Amino acid sequence: MLRQKAFVKKTKSGKVLKVVKEHYLRDDIWCSAEACKECGHTETVLSATPSINKLFPLPHYIIPDTNIFMNQIDVMEKPQITNVIVLQTVLEEVKHLSLPIYKRVRDMISNKEKHFYVFSNEHHRETFIEKLKDESPNDRNDRAIRVATKWYANHIKDLKPQVSVVMMTDDAANRSKGTADGLQAVSVKWYIEALDNTELLDMISDSRELDDGQQLIYSEHLTPAHLSNGIKTGKFHQGKLGISSHNYLEGSVFTKIDGIEGTILIVGRENLNRAVDGDIIAVELLPKSEWRTTPTGVVVDEEEEKEEEESLKAEQKAASEHKEDVTMTDATKTATTTSALLDTPQPCGKVVGIIRRNWRQYCGFIDRKSVHTPAGSSAPINVLFYAMDSKIPKIKIRTRQAHSLLGQRIIVSIDSWPKTSKFPIGHFIRSLGEAGDKSTETEVLLLEHDVPFHEFSKQVLSFLPVEGENWVVQPEHFNGREDFRDLPVCSIDPPGCTDIDDALHVVALPNGNYQVGVHIADVTHFVKPGNVMDAEAASRGTTVYLVDKRIDMLPGLLGTNLCSLRSNVERLAFSCIWELNQDAEIVKVRFTKSVIASKASLTYEEAQNRIDDERMQDDITQGIRTLNTLAKKLKQKRLDMGALTLASPEVRFSLERDTQDPVDVEMKELKETNALVEEFMLLANISVARKIFEKFPDSAMLRCHPTPPASSFEKLEKAVARMGITIDHSTSKTLSESLDNAVLPEEPYFNKLLRIMTTRCMMQAVYFCSGAKIEQEFRHYGLATDIYTHFTSPIRRYSDVMVHRQLHAAIDSDISYGNELTDKESMNELCNVLNHRNRMAQQAARSSVELFTHLFFKNKVQEEEGYVIRILKNAFIVLVPKYGIEGIVYASAKAHKTTAAVDATATTAVATTTPAAGQPILVYNPETDSLQSTEPLAEGESPKIQIQLFQKVMVQISIDDDLKGGGEGGMRQKLKMDLLKPWVEGISVHGICNKDDPEAHAVTSSLHAADKSNSLKRETEAPATPKRADKRSKA
Amino acid sequence: MPSLISPAERDYILKGVECNIRADGRQRPDYREVILETGVVSQTSGSARVRIAGGTDVLVSVKAEIGPVQVDPETGDGADKGQIICSVECAPSASQQFEGRGADDLNNEITQMMSRILCNNTTSSYTSTAASTTGSSTTASRQSSGPGGINLQKLCIIPGQQCWILYIDALILDYGGNLMDAIFMGTRAAIFDTRIPKTEVQDLGDGQFEFEVLDDAEDTDPVEGREDMPICITLNKIGACHIVDASPLEELCTEARLVVAVNRSGQLCGLQKGQEGGIEPSLLLEMIQFGKTMGQTLIKQLDTKIKAEADADLAKRQRGEPVHKLGFFAQ
User: Fold this and answer.
1) Inter-chain contact B216–A137, Cβ cutoff 8 Å?
2) CA pair distance A549, A810, nearest whole angstrom
3) What is the pTM of this model?
4) What H or E segment, with its residue span, contains residue A888?
5) For the PIN domain, which residue ranges apply (chain A) (predicted)?
6) Which domains does chain A possess?
7) Which end of chain A is more exposed for a tag (fewer CB within 10 A), N or C?
8) Higher per-residue pLDDT: A142 or B206
């Protein structure tokens, strides 16, 4: 039977098309109920005895409508919900409305245990319905669902054992129509209530609109047509919102303003207008008079917190909301007045509409203060949820298990953000476990960074060699491979490394030159393009290294065994062979697949010892020495070209063997041999990059490091200028030179610190497809090379796998390859995925270090030297090099300190005014980019206390236990840093061992004495040790 | 389509007409049987197929598209109006003479006739004078659409910017005489069948407008003023008499041809004379009068049939039954 469906469509070019589709109806669509003998199905999905509950004592299948999937997908995914008939009408609507949800429904359908059956009611002769005249599409679909339900009810009514169908919908009108038709209809809430499961009840999303009578907190978003037109005319700017990690009420959008790329700041709850980090938004610029230049402030407004709490308690009393508004506008006002002083304000804007939401599931915890019911109560209450990601606003959720969830890490998703609600409204999804627990926290950080960490599926594993562990190099493997088994190949890696993907060798040639080989694990021999294992590796993108574990990109058998170039076993490799002369210049280069047998797997330390130990004169040791000499020459050449030596504070944890608890922290040390390996890997990568670019000019996978924009150096330049140091960042060579010259004799750490901060000014290196950029943009700024790629770690990076395939295609014209190597578009897409995965992997690794740092500092209070590396409006960030950690020190007085400060005012000269709670003691001075005390200044006089970039301070590090599991305060960080020196009344704390230590005061008093001396000198030396300060005050 | 006729045949037809009996047994003012079906081409906004027993077979389709308004540079007229663009094409299969460029003249002639009558609804035409003389507001509003009947203002979406353009395309599938009448009947039926998608105009401020087309095929408007569309009656003068609905051979005997366009209120909407022969003033007046009466009756009958079909389709749809069209399966 043939029907027609017609609809009108407006194309992009403005044409109106009438689309007519032919629609065929069939009579061979089966019901798939196990007990049904009438239908011609062979395999059934719906079980003969589905579940029952209090409401429906008869076993039943559930037929949900579209909105059930759209709003309650989390509930539907629970194992308690099985035997569901997904109507084609519903599935198509879901697909149309939201692809992510559609994918999740599809996953459920393919999960055999869920017994989800897709019934193609739209193609079934008896359940297809024509749209009636004057019937809206929604009504038509609702009717289609009822018709299909009715069909099922009739069809299965005589089955033995007895079953029934239940239509599940939250639409009361649809339910009553269904009941009138003699169907069983139920809402999700009733159904779940009948299951007696509080966890499921919490997961029911409540997306109903709130009463209209409520006061609007946010202005309305504009319509999509308005937005697209505004963006077209340039009135609005489109971009992805990035929220500051220090202040969730401040975001920015990188976009084009009048044709020039720039950043628009969006400050304050009102201006952000319900946008969440990552959303694609439309921004309207504020008038120039409201632009500002102040740096980011940290929100620790406890007053605000309190009001939030109240508003929650009183369920939005208009009065408290109003008060809140006042404080908010006040804050904006003060900010604008300070900015009036400045010359180049930054464009500010407000969000007028959201083009695409980027809501995901968030890990976090419930705010203890928002739970008001007595313990043990199971009445549903509204509580506030803090996401671990500090960029996400608090989320209001309704739960019955608030008390049992306290102190747990839970996952929550946002349902809606109505304009009457200050916070987004969400619902509970699941609990991850006890907060502070290592495995829970590790899971949290993996989830938060979107790292796929599930086990490899059976399907993936099926592509491993059948021999498994016993796989050995067979004679047929020598086809097209060179036999390098006799070469003195060895590998040098960090201790405990099991996935060895590179090995080296050197042989002196008769003509006085050297043959140097870099051998890389031949992963592509095992991972063939397009299969499930390849797809899995591509989607993982990279291996993620956490402090205590590793999330592999490839199954362990390959990564740590068959591909790993272990010593004394024959392994397949992809080799890059150079002939280098005495000056380490490349005479010849060639690439080949090979078979090698590594003679030794060394650690950096072992290799270093071999170099140093003059008694060792074997082949391998001689080779390493030669390589070392060559590497030094290569490095010098690279530095001459302008390669940068940058630094980042990396630490290594010593873990206790059994508990995996950290027992010690040390900075990672770099040995000469690290540089040795690095040099040859760079050389290999560059050589390979040239080769594959030659073969695939449009689709080579390359890596570039863009030149950093001048603007990112501004602050740093200003800060070092005070010390008489200039940074020339025009090219990497000049930057490298200025970094080398930036040495302060009295501060040995300064150079390292400067390098760390320079690193942060850099852009991120990214993969790209050679066809997507012009050749001038291929440059790798940091390495000062005109072309670069990643070739040397195919076990842990997917980019290298692609490069291996391209290189293989480039050297062997006989092999056939698909368009995955030549298609510019798909290569571009892959690059984007890999860049994202890489970024996430880095962040996950960093978070893991942070987690272990927290565990390390648990129950410890440590005093350490630190350096100021960033100034915020009401706080500054301190880096403690010893542990490589950073923390925020707030420049506002704490509420509970107020009384103490009052006592101090009378006598000490330090605090002249009484710092009220929340009032800043140190105020930001935009001219010098520093925080300074607020006392009135005479002409030419410097403030008594100044906090500036690079300043050395003493801080006390501890773990704030209160915050664990959602204690007080808006800050999510758990590591607490308190200022010890310089002493600032109201901010600093007394050290544990030196309460009332006269030394602490000595610093400040000595500073006063030095006030009139050269201010520049004082600034650099102010945080010096008390001894030196004393000396100077005597002088 | 025969192009030549023998003297004997001519004499036979001439004499017959004189005696009020035509070769196929009809009398002078008799029409042949007309078969009409609407909604035959589903991709169009509206369509109709008209066949006249004896061969003539015409397919008319209306397609509504969006385009910029056409403003007359001299008068500035047209900024608030939609457009109608007509086109007629004779399928080469209809007649040997239509092969190659053979049908160009005929195509042009009919296209021009259609354009002149349907697209011309400027208020300066004669109906506006009629309206101003009567002075009645109801007639003024109706007649402001001119002889073509269709209210072009209603086809405008954003004044000065965008409007609906109705493309009326007639395809002559077979030739059996009296093309013009068949095409106009088909056009009327196709326009009655036409549904224009509803649009929602949004004011974006600063004189900027944006509109959305509602994608529901049901949520549509009929073409306003369609009842006032004229149809044509072609009168062929043979000897001293005139006949309607001439067959191909009768057309070859025609000395003069008069096409009378008339709307349902009997108003004359257009006249066109063809062939070399002359018509005496008294006969001309008689012919016009005859055409007017004939046209009015024909419109009434046509409308009844079209309405009956539309009602039947609607009833089916309300019951949720599929609407099946015979289309080209019709015998």
Assistant:
1) yes
2) 37
3) 0.62
4) strand A885-890
5) 60-176
6) 32-195 (3.40.50.1010), 224-434 (2.40.50.690), 458-698+788-841 (no CATH), 859-1034 (2.40.50.140)
7) C
8) A142
Neighbours of A582 (CB within 10 A): 11
Report CB contact under 8 Å: A233, B208: yes
Choose among A314, A436, A293: nearest CA to A365: A436
Instruction: Determine if the peptide bond prior to A943 is cis (ω within 30°).
Output: no
Taking contacts as CB-CB distances below 8 angstroms, the residues of chain B near A132 are 317-318, 320
Cα-based angle A139, A140, A146 (whole degrees, multiple of 5): 90
Report residue A468: phi and psi, to 5°: 65, -135
Residue B99: CB partners within 8 Å, gap ≥ 6? B92
pLDDT interval class at B101 (50, 70, 90): confident
Domain residue limits at B196:
7-319
Tally Cβ neighbours within 10 Å of residue B101: 8
Residue numbers in A near B217 (CB within 8 A): 6-8, 18
Residues A887 and A975 sit within 8 Å (Cβ to Cβ): yes
User: What SS3 class is residue A776?
Assistant: helix
Q: By CA distance, what is B217's nearest residue in A? A: A7
pLDDT at A42: 83
A601 forms bridges with which residues in the sheet? Answer: A491
DSSP bridge partners of A239? A281
Within a domain: B330? no
Interface test with A, best of B158, B215, B221, B313 (most A CBs within 10 A): B215
What's the CA gap between A695 and A704, in Å, rounded?
18
DSSP type of residue B62: E
Return the structure tokens found at A656.
């206790």
Scanning A163-262, the segments in alpha helix (DSSP H) are 172-180, 188-195, 198-203, 224-233
Question: What digits encode the pLDDT tens for the residues B114-130?
Answer: 998 887 655 443 443 33
At A505-530, the pLDDT tens digits run 999 999 989 999 999 999 999 999 88
**Could you write out the DSSP letters of every residue in A931-1000?**
EEE-S---TTPPPS-EE-TT-EEEEEEEE-GGGTTS-SSS----EEEEEEES--TTT----SS-TT-HHH
Q: Residue A595 above 50 pLDDT? A: yes
Q: Is residue B233 part of a domain?
A: yes
- Please state the rounded mean pLDDT for residues A317-344: 40
CATH number of the structural domain spanning residue B201: 3.30.230.70
Cβ A543 vs Cβ A451: under 8 Å: no
> Is residue A882 within 8 Å of A864, Cβ to Cβ?
yes
A935-947: average pLDDT? 65
Is 90 exceeded by the pLDDT of residue A702? yes
- Average pLDDT value for residue range B56-80: 87
Complex prediction ipTM = 0.73
For an interface test with A, give the residue of B69, B158, B216, B321 to mutate (most A CBs within 10 A). B216
Mean pLDDT value across residues B157-161 = 87
Note whether residue B273 is domain-resident.
yes
Q: How confident is the model at residue B230 (pLDDT cuts 50, 70, 90)?
A: very high
Euclidean distance between CA atoms B205 and A236, whole angstroms: 14
CA distances from residue A135 to A18, A141, A178, A807 in whole angstroms, order as listed: 19, 10, 17, 61
Total of domains in chain B: 1
Residues in A closer than 8 angstroms to B317, CB to CB, are 130, 132-133
- Which pLDDT score, from 0 to 100, does residue B302 have? 93
> Which helix or strand (DSSP H or E) is residue A52 part of?
none
A289, burial (CB in 10 Å: exposed 0-12, middle 13-18, buried 19+): exposed
Joined together, the tokens standing for residue A265 give: 């700041």
